[in-house]
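User: Design a sequence. Structure:
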């Protein structure tokens, strides 16, 4: 079903290490995932590093881990499983599983520049971010900024609904700018745990 998308992601990762794609999945799925994200009251403050320290000076979003407990989350996780299999088959990454959570940024929330792979832990290999926000523009803030290893800005991405971002977890520092209205996304990681 997503073979062309998987191919585009894989080719771009090989050539550039990151890719963002607008209108990536099914628009209906994006709306259904947004509804699931909005309907939950079980968000928790997000932690930082392997010790999961809560530090609101560095990160203010709230998260809700995803499982296949709704039709929409099941479909999204099936998309991710297909991408995992495609990446393993074509790039021999040995990805063992995928984990993901909804992220909710309230007004003023941000996440400072960071890497998704923890130091001395080779576990997160490929990061995904999928945006769920309808009617988003520059004035709403909340953009994702992707940097190279030297700190040069490579891309500023608005969190518009049905936009997918994929990048190598160890290679691209990134940050989320302060949101001016409530912002929803799904952050996920393909992992190799040894």
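Assistant: Done.
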């Amino acid at each position: 079903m997503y073979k062309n998308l998987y191919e585009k992601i894989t080719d771009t990762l090989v050539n550039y290490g990151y890719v963002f794609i607008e209108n990536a999945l099914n628009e209906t799925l994006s709306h259904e995932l947004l509804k699931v994200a909005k309907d939950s009251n079980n968000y928790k403050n997000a932690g930082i590093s392997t010790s999961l320290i809560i530090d609101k000076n560095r990160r203010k979003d709230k998260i809700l881990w995803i499982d296949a407990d709704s039709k929409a989350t099941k479909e999204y996780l099936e998309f991710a499983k297909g991408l995992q299999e495609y990446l393993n088959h074509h790039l021999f990454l040995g990805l063992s599983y995928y984990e993901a959570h909804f992220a909710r940024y309230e007004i003023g929330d941000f996440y400072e520049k960071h890497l998704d792979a923890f130091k001395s832990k080779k576990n997160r290999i490929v990061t995904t971010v999928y945006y769920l926000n309808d009617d988003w523009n520059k004035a709403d803030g909340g953009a994702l900024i992707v940097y190279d290893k030297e700190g040069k800005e490579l891309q500023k991405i608005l969190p518009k609904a049905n936009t997918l971002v994929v990048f190598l977890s160890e290679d691209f520092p990134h940050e989320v700018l302060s949101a001016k209205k409530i912002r929803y996304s799904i952050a996920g990681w393909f992992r190799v745990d040894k």
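Helices lie at 3-16, 27-39, 71-91. The two ends are 31 Å apart (CA to CA).
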